[in-house]
Design a protein that fits this description.
It comes from Umbra pygmaea. Keywords: Repeat, Ubl conjugation pathway, WD repeat. Pfam families: SOCS_box, WD40. The protein is mainly beta. The chain has helices at 104-109, 113-119, 286-289, 372-381, 386-390, 396-402; strands at 8-11, 18-24, 41-43, 49-55, 58-63, 67-68, 74-75, 85-88, 93-99, 123-128, 133-137, 142-147, 154-159, 166-171, 175-180, 189-193, 199-204, 210-215, 221-225, 231-235, 245-251, 258-264, 267-274, 279-284, 296-301, 307-312, 318-321, 326-330, 339-344, 350-355, 360-364. It has a single domain (8-422), classed as YVTN repeat-like/Quinoprotein amine dehydrogenase (Methylamine Dehydrogenase, Chain H).
Length: 423
């Protein structure tokens, strides 16, 4: 099915796992050349828009109203009031993000007048090769203003999940910056310094109290206060595995876990941390050590906190359940279209992955019913720190559950889930 935008080919797949692929059209002279990578993908908070970097300074913003029928096939039915947009940025785009992002309470109730007023002007932030962050009006597809201050590539952009137009950016200039987009005519930012090399990723906790950042080569996982703009702590690896490279990080939806992707001489793995105590709770070892030097490019928690999506250079997607099941899904080995980034649809059921050739794929992910115990834990941990939980007069087993100290170590071989039929 073809879009009205000539830059996109919409391709439906008969595969059980791959439900849709969007392929960008590049001039023949640029096909396969460096500069066409999809470095970042994002959904708007209501799921109606999807944006991705298609390379060569172009960002595509497309209407995303997928309709599932009873056999879970995808039909693209663009609505008349939504039109795909091509944003010509003039520079390679390394990161992008829709804003504002509502808090969980706002997303469920949407009764806050101030949030409705701000969300009526959906914006898209794009981080450019020259260090500039360009802000776009999604409704019109027109640029609004530029944020200047970074002296290196803004690799990751994140809007705070509180309904405000506050943007956090991490850069190769070794700094993070916090921008208030509502300050008209005043584009100054709060600067967080402390990393000794490139910052490859950052994430904001759901309660907007902390920022996590990982340095690509300085072996640092840093936590910062978003309230006082100060450094909190650096998370350390254990003696058995020393960080050589750090690639990505993400907070769980309740803020009680921080996932980081790291590399040592033995391979790549995922660590799960308690950001309040700096305790390492578990590691997903087999997810990448079995593939040797296979680099992790990105990781993201699902919106319900039940799954963790991992993108590697060999596989477009792996999906892990943070419980007894371990890995529940992985795509076939595909070295021709290396995975670079991923993001979940806010309504669940779909995860998008970007590839090195400027394309984006949408995968059907297992839908899980959250248990009552998980829902209670998520509600409690969204507003209660680990120290506050430990002060409660509760049985040890319940305390371990609430603080995620019962997550198993995934060090045993996982079943082979590499066929499309098992997706």
């Amino acid at each position: 099915m073809c879009s009205s935008d000539e830059n996109i080919q919409r391709i439906r797949s008969d595969s059980e796992g791959l439900i849709l692929e969007l392929k960008s059209t590049h001039p023949t002279s640029l096909e396969g050349r460096a500069g066409c990578e999809t470095w970042s993908v994002d959904f708007s908070h209501d799921g109606s828009w999807f944006a991705w970097t298609v390379g060569h300074g172009i960002v595509l913003v497309v209407a995303w109203p997928p309709r599932y029928d009873r056999v879970k096939k995808v039909e693209i039915t663009p609505e008349s009031h939504q039109q795909d947009k091509t944003l010509k940025c003039g520079q390679t785009v390394w990161g992008l993000a829709f804003g504002p992002r509502p808090s969980k309470k706002q997303a469920l109730e949407d009764k806050t007048a101030s949030f409705r007023r701000e969300s009526s002007r959906l914006v898209l932030a794009t981080g450019l090769e020259n260090g500039v962050i360009k802000i776009w009006d999604v409704a019109t597809g027109q640029p609004q203003f530029d944020l200047k201050g970074h002296e290196g590539v803004p690799r990751e952009l994140v809007f705070t999940p509180n309904g405000k137009l506050t943007l956090v950016s991490s850069s190769r200039d070794k700094t993070l910056r916090i921008w208030d987009l509502t300050l008209k005519g005043k584009k100054e930012s709060q600067v967080l310094s402390g990393h000794k090399d490139w910052i490859s990723c950052c994430s904001v906790s759901p309660d907007c109290s902390m920022i996590a950042s990982v340095g690509r080569f300085d072996r640092m996982v840093c936590l910062w206060s978003l309230r006082s703009y100060t450094f909190i702590r650096n998370l350390k690896g254990n003696n058995l595995k020393t960080f050589y490279l750090l690639a990505s990080c993400d907070f769980s939806p309740d803020g009680a876990l921080l996932a980081t992707a790291a590399f040592s001489g033995s391979g790549w793995w995922i660590d799960l941390w308690d950001p309040y105590t700096a305790e390492k709770l578990a590691s997903l070892v087999d997810c990448c050590e079995m593939y040797g030097q296979n680099q992790i490019s990105s990781l993201r928690f699902s919106l319900d906190g039940l799954h963790l999506a991992i993108v590697t250079e060999e596989r477009a997607l792996q999906l892990w359940e943070l419980g007894q099941r371990g890995m529940v899904m992985q795509t076939k080995v595909d070295r021709t279209s290396n995975g670079l980034c991923c993001n979940f649809h806010p309504h669940g059921g779909v995860v998008a992955t970007g590839t090195r050739d400027g394309h984006v794929r949408f995968w059907k992910v297992p839908r899980s019913m959250s248990s009552l115990s998980h829902l209670c834990r998520a509600a409690i941990r969204l507003s209660v720190s680990t120290q506050q939980v430990e002060a409660l007069p509760l049985p040890q087993r319940i305390l371990e559950f609430l603080t995620y100290r019962n997550i198993p170590e995934y060090s045993e071989a996982q079943p082979d889930l590499s066929t499309d039929e098992e997706l």
